[in-house]
TrEMBL record:
Assigned keywords, A-Z: Cell membrane, Membrane, Transmembrane, Transmembrane helix, Transport
Keyword Cell membrane: yes
Pfam family, one: MFS_1
Coiled coil: none
Superkingdom of origin: Bacteria
Xref: InterPro entries: MFS, MFS_dom, MFS_trans_sf
Subcellular location: Cell membrane
Membrane topology: Multi-pass membrane protein
Record domain Major facilitator superfamily (MFS) profile: where: 18-494
Transmembrane regions listed in the UniProt entry: 54-72, 84-103, 109-130, 142-162, 168-192, 204-223, 229-250, 271-296, 308-329, 336-357, 363-387, 408-425, 471-495
Protein name per Swiss-Prot or TrEMBL: MFS transporter
Length: 500
């Protein structure tokens, strides 16, 4: 007797409306990320952070979020993903208010840490809920495409909203845009999103939770410090501590009956390559957003709103790529789609080799369009492969792995690529033109160099600014070569892997 094939149930209008609410949660995070990129010059002028502090303001959110994602994904499987989503929305709103009224770099960094803790509850909860709400594979791919498009849409809205706010209000206002979104989310989520959890989650292992947090943050910190200041004993020791924690975490997961992270998923080629692809696509996008906003505003002299408008086509391309991914994977193998998307991203990155210190807005826009389009497709397909590989009851944990790759790529993109740009910038500065008491400020950041130049005689200021702008552009060029290399390697790995 043949066993009848069970057709997965199709989503109802309530599930699709619930998807819109989940997208709001992602919008909360995406808007905040790109708004902050545009606010970097204003924050530098008001709070006068050092270069390490400025990088921490940008990337400590991602460090904390990435370190907690596995724990929060596991927690959502236990206590309920919708409940965790609502808790995270409240926490993120409170942390955003604290960031808006920060009066020192240290206070802003602390608020960003709190945002990271709250953000870690939101991201795996949204993707895990999509896995439980959309049982049909085609509908799930489309839903994840919409989810990814909202990330791109939020990123696209961020520069416009942020540019307008920065031209009319103080920089802290860019964090306050989160509050109305949070209120809508809290009002609609209980009505439209069904609760879901693992009915048999097993024992929660506190030691695994601690080791998962201790594994990632020290390694990323060591990478950032090495890129910014060269190899040091302290950075090496911190990095080794993170590697040791990661080894202990992996060994413990293999021994536990109910592991926090199911390492058997990594034995699946589709899962492994999807996670790797997600990380590298975000790595490229995050690095470009970090140095791109400074290039447009500080090198080319565009206003925050003008910089936002120049970024808009690339971020809109990311939305289009996310929505197009579901159509692409129905016509070609997932491996081919992923590889093609990574090649498009690499070609877009290569276009930045044409930017210079005086004209380059057109090359920036074209390059960013290529990066946005390719990354939008790659991230959607990768997230779908990751979530679809896991059983429904472990959806939160699988989503946490996908989001960990996303946030690790985001943190590494800002830390490694941003630090590389600044290291080359410092080496290319002509400091012989400056008085001794201005050297530290000028070499600390591009905004610091501009501040010092404003106090120099006109002829000397022009020569020094030319040196600073050219040094920054040289950093972009070298960094772009590294981005292109890693993306092409990832494309080669994807096309050689059987993902279907």
């Amino acid at each position: 007797m043949n066993t009848p094939v069970t057709t997965p149930p199709h989503a109802t209008p309530r599930e699709w409306a619930g998807l819109g609410v989940l997208a709001l949660a992602l919008l909360l995070l995406a808007v905040d990320a790109t708004v902050l990129d545009l606010a970097v010059p204003a924050i530098s002028a008001d709070l006068a952070p050092s270069t390490p502090q400025l990088l921490w303001i940008i990337d400590v959110y991602s460090f904390v979020l990435a370190g907690l994602l596995v724990v929060m994904g596991n927690l959502g499987d236990r206590i309920g993903r919708r409940r965790l989503l609502l808790i995270g929305a409240v926490g993120f709103g409170i942390a955003s208010a604290l960031a808006a009224w920060a009066v020192s770099p240290e206070m802003l960094i602390a608020a960003r840490v709190l945002q990271g803790v709250a953000g870690a509850t939101l991201m795996p909860a949204t993707l895990g809920l999509i896995r439980s709400m959309f049982q049909d594979a085609r509908q799930r791919t489309l839903a994840i495409g919409v989810w990814s498009a909202m990330a791109g849409g939020g990123a696209a809205a961020g520069p416009l909203v942020g540019g307008w706010l920065l031209e009319h209000f103080w920089w802290g206002s860019v964090f306050l845009v989160n509050l109305p979104v949070m209120l809508v989310l809290l009002a609609l989520a209980p009505l439209l999103i069904p609760e879901s959890r693992d009915p048999n989650p097993g024992r929660f292992d506190a030691l695994s939770a601690l080791l998962s947090m201790l594994a990632l943050v020290p390694v990323v910190y060591a990478v950032k410090e090495t890129a910014a200041h060269g190899p040091t004993t302290g950075a090496l020791l911190v990095g080794l501590a993170g590697v040791l924690a990661a080894v202990l975490f992996v060994r413990r997961q293999r021994r536990l009956t109910d592991p926090m992270l199911d390492l058997r998923l990594f034995a699946l080629p589709r899962f492994r390559v999807a996670v790797f692809t997600n990380l590298l696509a975000v790595f490229a996008l995050a690095g470009v957003l970090f140095f791109g906003s400074q290039y447009l505003q500080l090198v080319l002299g565009r206003s925050p709103l003008e910089a936002g408008l120049l970024m808009l086509p690339g971020l809109a391309a990311s939305v289009f790529g996310s929505l197009a991914a579901a159509w692409l994977v129905r016509r070609w193998r997932a491996a081919v789609v992923l590889a093609g998307a990574l090649v498009v991203t690499a070609v877009g990155a290569a276009a930045f080799l044409a930017v210079d210190a005086t004209t380059g807005a057109e090359a920036f826009v074209l390059g960013f369009v290529g990066i946005g389009l390719g990354a939008g497709v790659a991230m959607t397909v990768a997230a779908d492969l990751v979530v679809g590989s896991a059983p429904e009851e472990r959806a939160g944990a699988a989503a946490a792995i996908s989001e960990t790759a996303y946030e690790t790529g985001l943190a590494l993109g800002v830390a490694l690529l941003g630090s590389t740009v600044m290291a080359i910038f410092r080496r290319g500065l002509d400091l012989s033109l400056l008085p001794d008491d201005a050297v530290a400020t000028a070499s600390g950041s591009l905004s610091g160099a501009i501040e010092v130049a404003s106090e120099l005689p006109t002829a000397v200021a022009e020569e020094f600014l030319s040196s600073a702008n050219q040094a920054f552009v040289s950093g972009i060029h070298l960094t772009v070569l590294g981005i292109v290399a890693v993306l092409l390697f990832a494309a080669f790995s994807a096309v050689r892997t059987k993902l279907c």
